[in-house]
Specification:
Number of helices: 13
Number of strands: 0
CATH topology of one domain: Helix Hairpins
Largest sheet: none
Order of helices and strands: HHHHHHHHHHHHH
Helix content: over 70%
Structural class: mainly alpha
Radius of gyration: 25 Å
CATH class of one domain: Mainly Alpha
CATH superfamily of one domain: MazG-like
Strand content: under 5%
Amino acid sequence: MSDAMHDLVEVVAQLRDPDHGCPWDLKQTHQSLVPYVLEEAHEVVDAIRHGDDRHLKEELGDLLLQVVLHAQLAQEQQRFDLDAIARGITDKLIRRHPHVFGHAEAHDSETVSANWDSIKAAEQTERGEISSESTSPLSDQLTKKVRGQPALAGAMTISRKAAKAGFEWDDMKGVWDKVHEELDELKEAVSSGDQQHAQEELGDLLFTLVNVARWCEIQPEEGLAGTNQRFLDRFSRVETALGGDLQGRSIKELEMVWQQAKLAIRAEQASKPTAPNNHR
């Protein structure tokens, strides 16, 4: 273990010291730390999206702290420690890369992914997580894989795996037909006043749009994150233009200021110098 990692482990152990530790850290459990794990993971993603190395380094440190904290909690109960976590992932990487650490061959990323899935399924069967006699092995694998993912990411995982197994439209027209079908069903459900039914139909529409994203090889999470940021940028300008007071404004006035904000942002982006192309 490097000096820096050793120091981090020692600091976390001190924070958890029953006699001289931090009251906040001492009351934490695996369950209570879940929101912080998710928050730090999302902040790492945000730093990556913005290409900010200083921010990324800091957020990766915050995420690493969560790993060390969970390891410390487990070590205190003599269940496992940080070394066991590191050994476990090292062994897994070696097992699932036989084309690097063994004698298997894989000349493209698709073969690597297929081998990974096959080895993973065999490991799960060996551990009894999936029965070798199961009549729905793919479903069993996906249930375990997506249960900890956000819904949008889980939908893409399911969509990709189902398509690879042959559960797929013949062409893009079939996907668009399904989008229109689900949209009509959502409209009907909303009109009926049945909120539960409307929620189910909204989910069906969103899932179908994830399939559109898969067919077009675009990332729905990235798309939605971009939309969120663009909305916030424009909304901030609308608030500023109206002195922070949106109450009582007509939709016509708000829409006019909104369009002005969009045009201003586009003009600013167009005036920015293009980054030099360093590829030769």
